[in-house]
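Subject: for your reference before the review

Hello V.,

The reviewers asked for a structural picture of the protein, and I figured it would be easier to keep everything in one thread rather than splitting it across files. Below is the amino acid sequence we used in the manuscript, unchanged from the supplementary table.
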Amino acid sequence: MTLLELLVVLVIASLMLALVAPNIGNVLPGSELKSFARQSAAMLRELRSEAVSQSRNRRLSLDQEERRFRSGKEALALWPEGVEVQLEQGEVPDFLKTPFEDDKALVFFPDGSSNGGALSLSSESAGHYMIRVEALNGKVWIDG
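And here is what came back from the structure prediction:
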């Protein structure tokens, strides 16, 4: 092999990579939803960790109009187009509720536990994921 042949092969390979790489997301329609499910589970785990380390309740609610997750007044993450998010919450004991907590929410307590519940993520083209939160220990896992 000469140096010229090697350079030609590298140029052809880089052109192919430049043309193929942007289209990988279109080839795998479920990859975006799967990635979003993993990010959402990581966000829930982070909220649980903050509840324990800061010794205060942390809550996650949905803002359907803006397509965002919220923790109190703080906007946490925006979800992708075409993804529908639903929240199924467990019960929060009355003595832990505050007057402004009328909306549905997943709540993590300072001892690491939670009110329990699930986030349902679905897309017509990519399927369905359920992110469950266990009440007793606040464990978060994804059912695919």
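For the response letter, the relevant points are probably these. The chain has a mean pLDDT of 83. The beta strands are 58-63, 68-71, 74-78, 84-89, 106-108, 117-123, 127-133, 140-143.

Happy to draft the paragraph if you're swamped.

O.
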